[in-house]
């Protein structure tokens, strides 16, 4: 199932004009057949790099996603690196402390859902970051 989610995230990036994705070395292999199928060809248009977080050269804002962050709808500057964690464990505390800002997709107060899947979160965040403020 994670292979399908990964392919879906690549497809989401392509849809919103995100042309680079940086992955931890433990992320599912890009060329896994299920990942390729789920990406629907987007793997050809989005550059995917496998690199440890501490080796990234970052000169922009770093946003880390978490259930307890600032609403993505209240952000003024919507450019930079967005870190999405895996669904089971989220983002490691070590990586989260490097973020300039912790962000969240606000939950409806009446919702009984525990969380969103990471591909759904990626789509919502990419949509909001691509809007013109």
How would you characterize this protein structure?
- About 30% of the residues lie in helices and about 20% in strands.
- It has four helices and five strands, in the order αβαβββαβα.
- A three-stranded parallel sheet has the order 4-3-5, with no helix packed on it.
- Strand 1, helix 2 and strand 2 form a beta-alpha-beta unit.
- The N and C termini lie far apart (about 35 Å).
Summarize the structure.
With 133 residues, the protein is an alpha/beta fold. The chain has 4 helices and 5 strands.
Q: How many individual helices?
A: 4
The H/E string reads HEHEEEHEH
N- and C-termini, Cα separation:
35 Å
Q: How many β-strand stretches? A: 5
**Which parts are unreliable, with pLDDT below 50 for 5 consecutive residues or more?**
none
Which range does the strand content fall in? Answer: 15-25%
Mean pLDDT: 90
Biggest beta-sheet profile: 3 strands, parallel
Write down the CATH topology: Alpha/beta knot
**CATH architecture identity:** 3-Layer(aba) Sandwich
């Amino acid at each position: 199932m994670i292979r399908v989610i990964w392919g879906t995230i690549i497809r989401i990036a392509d849809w919103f004009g995100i042309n680079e994705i940086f992955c931890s070395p433990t992320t599912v292999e890009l060329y896994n057949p299920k990942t390729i199928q789920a990406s629907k060809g987007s793997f050809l248009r989005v550059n995917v790099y496998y690199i440890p977080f501490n080796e990234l050269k970052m000169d922009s804002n770093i946003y880390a996603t978490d259930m307890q962050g600032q609403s993505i709808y209240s952000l003024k500057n919507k450019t930079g690196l967005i870190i999405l964690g895996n669904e089971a464990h989220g983002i490691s505390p070590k990586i989260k402390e490097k973020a300039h800002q912790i962000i969240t997709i606000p939950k409806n107060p009446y919702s009984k859902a525990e969380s969103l899947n990471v591909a759904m979160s990626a789509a919502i965040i990419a949509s909001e970051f691509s809007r013109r403020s």
